[in-house]
Amino acid sequence: MRVHSRSQREYLHDLVSAKNQAFRPLTEEENALGFLGWHERGYLPHCDYPGLVQLVTFRLADSMPASRRGEWEHLLSIEDNQEKRTKLEAYLDEGVGACLLRYQRAAQIVEAAVLYEHGVTHDVLAWCVMPNHAHVGARLAQAAGQVAAKLEILLGRGNQRLPETLGAVVGTRVLGHVHAG
After folding, report:
1. What does the pLDDT look like over 72-95, one tens digit per residue?
2. I need a surface site. Which of 67, 112, 121, 149 has the fewest CB within 10 A?
3. Where are the domains of the chain?
4. Which of helix, strand or coil describes residue 176?
5. Residue 38: helix, strand or coil by DSSP?
6. Are 175 and 60 in contact, with CB atoms under 8 Å apart?
């Protein structure tokens, strides 16, 4: 049920503008660190300020496969964002795909990547590794998008301190999506 006559895009734009007026502006230093304050990418409002607790969710590429698009595509058109997110999470919880993260070694790789910059770019408060996706709750010292991008790099390509990656274990690109916010 729509409670406003404006388009969802206009409503979202106005909501984000009002939030930006109500919150303190970002400092030049915070802008330089990549923080975005209140913003949107066309579908959900996001808040990105230093010290906020954020939820980062990432899923394996085969958890929402194109071959099974008919099972999940309609979920993307749900207008109520809370309902959409709840139903997408429920679909992920069904365990579609190879569910690589159910194996201890794969879950350990995810845990090592999540904790890799703990105390530097973020303070991990909680994390949960599911068979085909994971959630991380963290207080961020860097912009959410930057932390998510680093996590994606660590999991996909690794580095000298984390030489084993999910990509190396599977031999393909494994991450389908990393979302912070």
Report:
1. 888 888 888 788 888 888 888 898
2. 67
3. 8-48, 53-180
4. strand
5. strand
6. yes
